[in-house]
From TrEMBL:
Domain of life: Archaea
Species annotation: Methanobacterium formicicum (strain DSM 3637 / PP1)
Protein name: THUMP domain-containing protein
Length: 193
């Protein structure tokens, strides 16, 4: 991943794309191709048919890439929904990419949530972490502890209500290696295949 840490601005948007882990495309008549190669090809095929500028960056994990682009990720997700894909599992529009210490992640989530979520709306937290969890200043935080900590902070500091189901907003945390992607979005803004 690039060394720069960037918060989403008006000119550049970031989409995180996760590929399926099994990579068995024999049933589709495709042999000898890696899942990430097929997934990148699917992204390129979907976006080449648009006027969008885009740049795909591999993460530290073989099954995750980020796509920087000059169009709203909602347009890209709609394009991916219309495109036949076999390698893409999930796409999430990231609001920011921060260094992975848990303190940085929580600080950024509080800022984003205060800007996007109204007081009468609910949220849930979803955490996609590799290995044991995110590193804090003093320890490693498991996904469950991180979800509880973020939910508590949002309730205490912003007076927002946590709902596990039928929620207005999803706070999505995606580990990208040394960096962490954060999304605060409506459920229909995330692509699940």
């Amino acid at each position: 991943m690039n060394n720069k840490k960037s918060e989403k601005n008006v000119d550049c948007f970031v989409l995180m794309v996760k590929f399926k882990e099994d990579g068995d495309f024999a049933e589709y008549g495709i042999k000898g191709i890696k899942t990430e190669d097929k997934g990148i090809e699917e992204i390129e095929t979907a976006l080449t048919s648009t006027d969008a500028w885009f740049y795909i960056t591999e993460s530290e994990f073989y099954d995750i890439v980020t796509v920087e682009m000059n169009v709203n990720p909602a347009e890209t997700i709609n394009q991916l929904r219309k495109t036949s894909t076999i390698a893409i599992e999930r796409a999430v529009p990231l609001d920011s990419v921060v260094s992975s210490p848990v303190e940085s992640v929580i600080k950024d989530i509080l800022k984003l949530a205060s800007q996007k979520i109204d007081k009468n709306e609910s949220f849930t937290v979803q955490c996609q972490l590799k290995d044991e969890g995110l590193r804090g200043l003093d320890s490693i935080i498991s996904p469950d502890k991180l979800i509880n900590q973020i939910s508590g902070e949002l309730y205490d500091k912003l007076n927002l209500e946590y709902h596990n189901k039928n929620t207005d907003w999803i706070i999505q945390i995606e580990e990208l290696g040394e960096d962490t992607g954060i999304a605060v979005c409506r459920p229909d803004e995330i692509l699940m295949k």
